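Predict structure. Chain length: 111.
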Amino acid sequence: MFDMMGMMNKVKEMQAKMKEAQEKLKHITVTSEAGGGMVKATANGERRLLKIEFDETLMNPNDKEMLADLVVAAVNKAMDEAGERGREEMKKNTEGMLPNIPGLDLSNFGL
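Prediction complete.
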């Protein structure tokens, strides 16, 4: 016989674990660089940009285009890495909560 109360308890437990995992995403930080470290971007597991750092040698008005390109590259890399770390954290915290259903992908749930 189908145990509705047991299933509801599992759903509540999964929701609590997902909320806990989402809270942890704020504390995961990733710093990526472009141009051999001339531009560094730091993002968190929620894919929010936290900080950008520039090498002083880039502060030349004649190099605006290069600086813009390096910023875009560093930010995109940091966002990709932060997203991946966030997915890993969510997967780790919700592992075993749901049966392995082919085609069911919750890797982006809550990100």
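Summary: The chain has a mean pLDDT of 82.
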